[in-house]
Amino acid sequence: MASSRPRRPRPPGSLASLRHRNRGRIIDALRGAQLLSRAELARATGLSRSTVSTVVAELIDDDIVSEGAANRPSLGGTGRPGVTLCLNPSAGAALGVDIGYARLRVLVSDLAGTVRAELDAPSPDPDDAPAIIDATVALVQQALAEAAVGAGHLVGAAAAVPAPVDRETGLLGVESCIPALAGIDVGGVLSDRLGFAIRAENDANLCAVAERLWGDHPGHETMLYVKLAHGVGSGLIIGGRLHRGFHGTAGEVGHTSLSPDGPLCKCGNRGCLERMAQGVMAGEPSRTSRRSPLADLVERAEHDDPVARRALRDVGALVGQALGATVNLLNPSLIVVGGDITPAWQALENPVREALDRCAMHRPAEGVVIVPGALGVRAEVLGAVGLALREAPALPFAA
Ligand SMILES: [Zn+2]
Predict the structure, then answer these.
(1) Fewest beta carbons less than 10 Å away: which of 79, 179, 236, 368?
(2) How far is the CA of 239 from the centre of ligand 1 (A)?
(3) Domains of the chain, residue spans
(4) Which of 46, 152, 81, 146 is nearest to 398 (CA)?
């Protein structure tokens, strides 16, 4: 890892400030696109070719940027192949955290997404917020130590939480699957305890980010991730980017009301998808076992329990019904269904598809590909790393 550099205040408008901004623009462009030639960097940043050449030479001297071994033709260039440039993977690190109902997971990666350390541990009592925060902080510190990464080397850090996160306040919504964390600014608390900025983000949003980056579903710019576990959440990718909405709560498909006379939901409405699905699964999320009722149902269905198989079909029909309006509104090309349901996807696929066909317009319903999640229980923590890499608020080495 590169050594961290002390930051000095730069007067706005000064040459040092301009140089810092130009370095940041080039690093941002490389972070978004991985490999670019100098000519492509000039186009992507709006900087002149000579400025790009000067700044790139400095970044190579500082061991932050590397020249690629293979040349390729420069896109739209004058014919001379461009030497590709990339961020030196070891010039920084990203931290991902998953605060799940059953497990805590922490992953530290380099700038290329290579895992440097990955740890998990049982989650503390879901009614004990201080214990959850303490355990998360301890696991993060252990992972950073194992990866030999200091806080000064982190380009970004994000934590997945099973709740909507208010974009302005950072507070977790009352719909949290870990009730004790509702109303807490988990990102702020973790940042204070760890001494660096860490952002809390809805877990289904991060699963969507992870599936887009590493889920082997290339070419889908408008996609929806649906997480079926203790609750029902979803994440939206629109135009290739995570869509959070005005308050940061976009994608809460689990709280789509399917029956105005249905059972009361924790969000205050009636007949929400999440509450109806829990009804099918005979009750509230279990507090004695950390497995979700859905995971139990999936296991029973795998052993040919006819009641479990019927219940799964009913859950699939509810999901398909709730997705109808979303498919009409957004016309996604891909829906990824993940969470505890993945092993039982075969039992769920037809009911989801049939209900979607009933509840959405023919053209968008027919055209959308529906697949099970590819990343399993690591989707949340991988998404947190992905977000940290793509939306890092500060690059300590952009000095
Ligand atoms: Zn609800």
Answers:
(1) 79
(2) 28
(3) 15-90, 92-205+381-390, 217-373
(4) 152
**Is 83 a residue whose pLDDT tops 80?**
yes
**CA–CA dist 132, 190 (Å, integer):** 11
Instruction: Tell me how far the alpha carbon of residue 176 lies from the centroid of ligand 1, in angstroms.
Output: 11
Single-letter amino acid code for the residue at 123: S
* Ranges 63-72, 273-282, 359-368, most confident: 359-368
Q: Tell me how far the alpha carbon of residue 78 lies from the centroid of ligand 1, in angstroms.
A: 57
CA of 273 to the centre of ligand 1 (A): 7
* Rounded CA separation 54/51 (Å): 5
Tell me, what's the pLDDT at 200?
96
Confidence at residue 3, expressed as pLDDT on a 0 to 100 scale: 38
Ligand 1 ion local residues (Cβ < 5 A): 255, 265, 267, 269, 272
CATH topology of 92-205+381-390 equal to that of 217-373? yes
Compute the distance from residue 90 Cα to the ligand 1 centre, in Å.
44
CATH class of 217-373: alpha beta
Q: What is the pLDDT of residue 64?
A: 84
Say yes or no to pLDDT of 31 above 80: no
CATH number for region 92-205+381-390 = 3.30.420.40
Comparing CA positions, the residue from 59, 5, 1, 3 lying closest to residue 29 is 59
- What's the CA dihedral at 238, 242, 245, 251 to 10 degrees? 80
> What percentage of the chain exceeds 90 in pLDDT?
54
If you average pLDDT over residues 359-388, what whole number do you get? 94
Q: Identify the architecture of domain 15-90 in CATH.
A: Orthogonal Bundle (1.10)
3-state secondary structure of 201: strand
φ, ψ at 372 (rounded to 5°): -75, 155
66 bridge partner residues: 86
